Write the structure tokens for this entry.
Amino acid sequence: MVRGTKRRRNSTEKPKAVVTLHREDTALVDDQVTVGDSQCTGAKPYARLVGIRRGVATIDIFDDVFVCGRGSDETPVNYNFSALTHDVGLYRFISKVQFAINRATDTRRIYLNDHSRNGTLVNQEMIGKGQTRELMNGDLISIGIPALIIFVFETTDDSQYPEELTKKYHVTSHSLGKGGFGKVLLGYKRSDRSVVAIKVLNTQFSTRCSRAIAKIRDIKNEVEVMKKLDHPNIVGIYDWITVSKYSYMVIEYVGGGEFFSKVVDSKYNRMGLGESLGKYFAYQLIDAVMYLHSVGICHRDIKPENILCSDKSERCILKLTDFGMAKTTTAAKMKTRCGTPSYNAPEIVANEGIEYTPKVDIWSLGCVLFITFAGYPPFSEEYTDMTMEKQVMTGRLLFHSQWRHITHETQKMIKWMLTVEPSKRPTAVELMSTEWMKCADCRTAKQDILKNSAKAVKTTVGGQQTTVAAATVISTTVTAAATITTGGGGEKGVAAEKKRNQ
């Protein structure tokens, strides 16, 4: 398990309230501005409030009681948020006394006391006026609603994470996901406060839970593969830090959740996304795979759970992630049986020790697009007339009623991608060269990708150049871009829907 500390909470705490956050709401203007340094010259602050919203300073805390709010002549405060008067969306939520940070003189524990009318939240949970919450290193502090994050709380004497990591990144305690090898945490770059996902991997030896140990060799392979990649539909990597017991991968944050959640969303009646939206996403995924193969990388585990959405909008940018099984095709032959069974190509399922090609990715992508257009998987253990292995080996496909709304051209493309004989299966270049990929929906997808890339612009912040991706959306309800794969199982949910639609 990743080291952590237990949290005490007041019994009157209200249930968690979660909303979508926007990255522009957490961009710093006054880079590395600190408040409170003059209070105790030469003294060391016991905590720090790291400002991560535009106009919010970073505050060193020395006093056992530190009050934040609008303030007035009658109600003086230590920090008055005066720099936020232009930010009407936030400033209207701030009370004269918003909250106080208190350090207990006996236990030295640190608490947040909420004094506000509209409320203060810690890690998306409303505290409530007159209520108290103990603060832990990395906690997020919001005002009014979860979206309005203003601070990351940090204790200055905490050694939970290695200095190699903390000197570059603010590591929050907000979990974005968990898996067999560790967890994923929300983080911010110290340089510009841009959002990242920090994948914490347990690499220490443990006989009690040996399956929860990530091999340094496998992590290094994933990192080396990701470092070679630069594509708008592929999750990027920023950093990799390894210490004696843990490895930390700092990667691009993608906030819209897994693509799997979209294809089974009830608003589509579990009948697939249809022709137009399906082709919009097909363009992005085929382009990503074409790029991978052009640089000599085979993913080997393409499935809806390993595709992430940039945000919750219907037409969003997709990002291919989880390169733990990826292989550099120019360096070695591919013979290993790996991946997820219901998305594996026949040549992998056969497991005859014969070399296979990157066309296994085309088969897997064909399975993903089959689900995208129709809402159920092409191959599944839920089919009782034939084993799943035989379904794959023979390429048996069942087209249910929802395919009546899908054109014959699209059905032909899916069948082509799910051709059993690898030599007859298309390459990504061949798929991209078809008339099918020159439709209006594909052109729209291409334009949206270019627009999204253009929004990552250099902006002058506090006299320094920093990168602010204004359109990136943070949703704290989902497993982030750094999702740790735990063994899938998602295809069973789609299979269950298929069974009900038969």
